[in-house]
Write a structure and sequence with these properties.
By secondary structure, this protein is of the alpha/beta class. Helix content is 38%, strand content 14%. Strand 9 (284-286) and strand 10 (293-298) form a beta hairpin.
Length: 354
């Protein structure tokens, strides 16, 4: 530990992203990336924007915000954009949570929430999910703290219905409720429809998953103008230009190509459902994911061993050595061919064990 580090740097435990190995080619089912390329219109937008890279991008990202607002039937003043949804969430922690205004979230969820709470000195309380990993909404309806919740949840993929989300939001009129919808396009109903009636609701989404732009790092939030102004105050105190010209152009083209977006999300949903059936037929416990991944376990082979055996066969998955979920693997949904190879590799592993 460096003597030059601040107390904050010494005290925080950073988030650990999924591995991005460079040693050989793998079937990457570990970081929930989209298996399909972005819209062809995105590539055209890159070419058009490249000639202007000598100029700073628009610090207000006005054209992109207008495109997002149009997609959702809102005003651009209700839209905020940032460098991936992770940055948007970090800004939200700084803008809306603090030592005297704590936050609650599930004990099994996206682990970046824990990192942000530690980094920004926010008092955080985790609420245990049920034994089947579903969320009991009652402990979130006290109006005693802010709420942040991934929906569908990660890494389980389980979804709360819109009515349940609305109950949480309306039960916390004096605190901000953040619904992190990184995976909502794969089977959920967005809470964006509640924003106009719920000034305490902030909905966060990303272009990384359903719009196949993980490499461009574009995220956005939708909420009341009051909440968006709070995010802008934080952004402009850190970096007025979080999105470069290529990212702005790519995201605008992606949100405008709605048909392509629908086509690739439906393909992933179809493959996910087929994968669930194949895994269950092999004796796996498979949660009813509504995301672009599945969360699975096997009664006879521990997840850590499955992870190792699959990696040796050139297939990457994600294993979380954390309480309650250490015997589960999170598996991204790839193409039909990739998932067939994944299923075949599992058959080999099970056969070898027998």
């Amino acid at each position: 530990m460096s003597s030059f580090w601040s107390k904050t740097a010494k005290g925080v435990t950073p988030y650990v992203p999924g591995e991005q190995p460079q040693d050989k080619q793998y079937i990457k089912l570990n970081t929930n990336e989209n298996p399909y390329p972005p819209s062809p219109k995105v590539l055209e937008a890159i070419q058009d924007a490249a000639s202007l890279l000598r100029l700073y991008p628009d610090p207000e990202a006005l054209e992109l915000r207008k495109a997002i607002a149009k997609h959702f039937g809102l005003s651009h003043q209700e839209v905020f954009v940032g460098n991936g949804s992770d940055e948007v969430l970090a800004f939200a922690f700084m803008a809306f949570f603090m030592p005297d205004r704590p936050v609650v979230y599930p004990d099994i969820t996206y682990t970046f929430y824990e990192v942000y709470a530690s980094l920004f000195g926010v008092k955080a309380t985790t609420i245990p999910v049920r034994e089947d990993f579903t969320i009991d909404i009652r402990p979130y309806c006290t109006d005693r703290a802010g709420v942040i919740m991934a929906n569908p949840n990660a890494p389980t993929g389980l979804l709360l219905g819109l009515k349940e989300v609305e109950t949480i939001v309306r039960s916390n009129p004096n605190n901000v409720v953040i619904i992190d919808e990184a995976y909502v396009d794969f089977g959920g109903q967005s809470a964006v429809t509640l924003v106009r009636d719920c000034p305490n609701l902030l909905v966060v989404q990303t272009f990384s998953k359903s719009r196949a732009l993980a490499g461009m790092r574009v995220g956005f939030a939708i909420g009341s103008t009051e909440l968006i102004e709070g995010l802008n105050r934080i952004k402009d105190s850190i970096n007025s230009y979080p999105l470069d010209r290529l990212a702005l152009a790519c995201a605008k083209a992606a949100i405008e190509d709605d048909q392509y977006f629908k086509d690739i999300t439906q393909r992933i949903i179809k493959t996910r459902e087929g994968t669930k059936g194949a895994l269950r037929a092999m004796g796996f416990n498979v949660l009813d994911s509504k995301a672009n991944f599945v969360f699975v376990s096997h009664s006879d082979i521990h997840a850590a061993q499955l992870f190792k055996e699959l990696r040796e066969r050139g297939i990457l998955t994600r294993h979380f050595p954390r309480p309650r979920i250490d015997n589960f693997l999170r598996v991204t949904i790839g193409t039909e061919e990739q998932m067939s190879q994944f299923i075949e590799a599992l058959r080999e592993v099970i056969a070898d064990r027998q």
